[in-house]
Amino acid sequence: MSTFTIFLALIVVVAFLLVVVIMVQNPKGGGLSSSFGGGGTQQLGGVKKTTDFLDKSTWTLATIMLVLILVSNVAINRTGTGESKAIEAINTEQTVPVAPAVPPATNNNTETPAESN
Predict the structure, then answer these.
(1) Which of 20, 37, 39, 64 has its CA 20 to 30 A from that of 73?
(2) What is the pLDDT of residue 17?
């Protein structure tokens, strides 16, 4: 398993977690925090200031994703000359040589064989 594959798997996991955290939030102040009491000072089930946690986790996951994407660029296996694979395929194709066109033979004798009798 290559390093790039590991980074790709980590990016997918972080992206999934980021989607979950963003979907839990409500842009109008509701979401998960309102279902646990709504007030900033109330506490229910040990959850206090859920919006702060969700906000920090969103920024943390976004930062982790950005770093993983930048680091995975270094881990990409760079083989070849840097050209496109299509261009490399065109350059390596076996071409069949074409015989040059032969011009029709010119006859210096202007009379036809029937006239020479």
Answers:
(1) 20
(2) 95
